[in-house]
Amino acid sequence: MKKIAIAFLLILGTITTQAQELTWETNVKKAAELSNKTHKPMFLFFTGSDWCGWCLRLQKDVFKTPEFVEWAKKSVILVELDFPRKTPQSQEIMQQNNELQQAFGVQGYPTVWFANGTLKDGKVNFSQLGSKGYGPNPKEWIEDANKIIGNVAKPEEAQKKSNSKN
Q1: What is the Cα–Cα distance from 28 to 15, expressed in whole angstroms?
Q2: How far apart are CA 45 and CA 55, in angstroms?
Q3: Cis ω on the peptide bond leading into residue 110 (within 30° of 0)?
Q4: Beta pairing class for 42-47 and 77-82
Q5: Cα distance between residue 129 and residue 72, in whole Å
Q6: Of the candidates 3, 28, 124, 92, the residue with the CA atom closest to the CA atom of residue 11
Q7: Is the pTM value of this prediction over 0.90?
């Protein structure tokens, strides 16, 4: 009986862990396509995954919490723009990440930019919504993120709000 209970707990734990996994895109063009298709902004996470202590803390304290996982799945397209020191990357990803770091003026890690993107002539044109850094409280982090992405209403939503006030 103990073996059955232990096996059940292991299976349940595996299912719970898998349910909380998020999909992080690394190709910004693919992320922009998903963003346009789903009408969700991109969540551009500039990180040093194998050396940046604050980046690791942000992931542990916020990004790996159930609240964040639930919010992220319904609210944004996650994009990891990594600047590792030891982990190998393709030349294409390194170039993409360096160009985006310069375009968004990122000077420290972790930095999260929220943006919409449109593809034109094989390149992504960004509309920046706002940025955020480290914060240990998932609830406050999500509230701040919602303020950033909530500032940009879709035209039809803005029209409905305008009409309801009249």
Answers
A1: 29
A2: 9
A3: yes
A4: parallel
A5: 16
A6: 3
A7: no
Give the Cα-Cα-Cα angle 126, 63, 123 (nearest 5 degrees).
20
Tokens standing for residue 100: 């985006």
How many residues does this entry show for the chain? Answer: 166
Q: How far apart are CA 63 and CA 20, in angstroms?
A: 10
Beta-bridge mates of residue 47: 82
Q: What distance in Å separates the CA atoms of residue 8 and residue 42, rounded to the nearest whole number?
A: 38
User: Does 151 have pLDDT greater than 90?
Assistant: no
Structure tokens at 112: 């999260």
Residue 147 one-letter amino acid: K
Give pLDDT tens digits for 75-125: 999 999 999 999 999 999 999 999 999 999 999 999 999 999 998 888 999
Q: Alpha-carbon Rg of the chain, whole angstroms? A: 18
> What are the Cα distances from residue 68, in Å, to 9, 120, 143, 150?
24, 32, 11, 16
Q: Please tell me the predicted confidence (pLDDT) of residue 122.
A: 84
CB 111 within 8 A of CB 131: yes
